[in-house]
């Protein structure tokens, strides 16, 4: 009887294994079909890799790395990864912690004694820098816009762009995504290691993980087999080469390049404790602040399935690493186009096929339809559609679409999309602040003042709005 029971258990386990394998094959086939279909209409340019338990299940390339010379993307094509590089910076900090060179509770001044801002030096901790609660601003500001990009070559060069800025809020009080915070982390890495940031991550992250096709752009060197970034302002636009970051070197906040295969190696090295200990990784992906961000990793949960990783987006750059904790999937998507130019569709579709329909994917699809209605039928039609959506929209993707028009100097359209946004999400101080910035850039001082005040009504600690109003009123 005992032998029969064991035999039945073995049979059941074998059947379950076969069913799971078939389910995976079916999911991959659907993903493949979708990608083939949209690529026929130039709907995606980039690479996709899906692995499970370190075994690659799917990898393909689509579109062109260089349109002018008809060079197709290949699976080993290098792409810009923008803020995905924050994962490398955070891992470097954890390595230094394991070596006893810092603690997460150390204040900036305990490491960088000559930091020029007293409040940052005495109040901001390493942990707050990692989780974006430091109150530091950003370096994508007027100084950056007017600076020759080839002159931004070091972490110190980036620091000079914001070192005199006041904090947006008291450290630890709220979450506000901060590229500047990760520049300060880069300075900490350089100070404690005695070498520059770029050499540190090369020696201590890329080399141990076997990432031979990953690095940071260097102003004076060309990079073989790298995709050009392409942008277009709307569905009726034409592809043009992005020049926004041309010449600037990457930083500890982002701006490296990599391949889908190298990012798989990075994920495997993390999971196998090649780079940091199991305990350190657990700290990095714990959602202690319940805001969906750990130490250099975004944290998501789709239908109970925990996923960690990071995305990156810039002009002609989009991508993400997703590591599924419960299902052992590793998914890497990289594109040489903006997020709304096919990449989000692909990322959302893969997540839905692997984890099921989620609020995030539903919000994106609704927002995409809303933007298309605006571009084809106009503002009033979009507002009418918005009223049927019950607030089920994505602020991120509406702002991305508005930003395209800002870059093209089509401020009327940028303002329209942001007015749609604040109509749909009327309780966001940040959205009103962005709307005010756009009105100001468009030359409408009155509407800028009005919307800075509306932002302050929602958050009286918005230092950016306070400073702008001091200049405008």
Explain this structure to me?
The relative contact order is 0.11. This protein is an alpha+beta fold and 473 residues long. The N and C termini lie far apart (88 Å). It has 2 domains: 42-356, 3-Layer(aba) Sandwich (Beta-lactamase), CATH 3.40.710.10; 365-472, Serine Threonine Protein Phosphatase 5, Tetratricopeptide repeat, CATH 1.25.40.10. The chain has helices spanning 2-40, 86-98, 108-111, 118-123, 126-131, 142-145, 155-159, 179-193, 197-209, 260-271, 278-284, 339-355, 359-377, 379-386, 395-407, 411-424, 429-441, 445-458, 463-472; strands at residues 46-52, 55-62, 64-66, 71-72, 79-82, 215-216, 230-231, 240-241, 256-258, 298-302, 305-314, 317-324, 329-335. The protein has a 6-stranded antiparallel beta sheet, sandwiched between helices. A 3-stranded antiparallel beta sheet has the order 5-9-6. A two-stranded antiparallel sheet has the order 3-4. Helix 2 (86-98) runs parallel beside helix 8 (179-193), helix 17 runs antiparallel to helix 18 and helix 18 packs antiparallel against helix 19. It is globular and about 55 Å long. It is found in: Membrane. Pfam families: Beta-lactamase. This is Serine hydrolase.
> In the CATH scheme, what's the topology name of the largest domain?
Beta-lactamase
| Oligomer designation | single chain
Give a quick account of the main beta sheet: strands, pairing sense, barrel closure.
Answer: 6 strands, antiparallel
Helix count, DSSP H or I runs of 4 or more residues: 19
Number of strands: 13
Q: What distance lies between the first and last C-alpha atoms, to the nearest angstrom?
A: 88 Å
Pfam families: Beta-lactamase
GO molecular function, one term: hydrolase activity
Subcellular location: Membrane
TPR repeats: 429-462
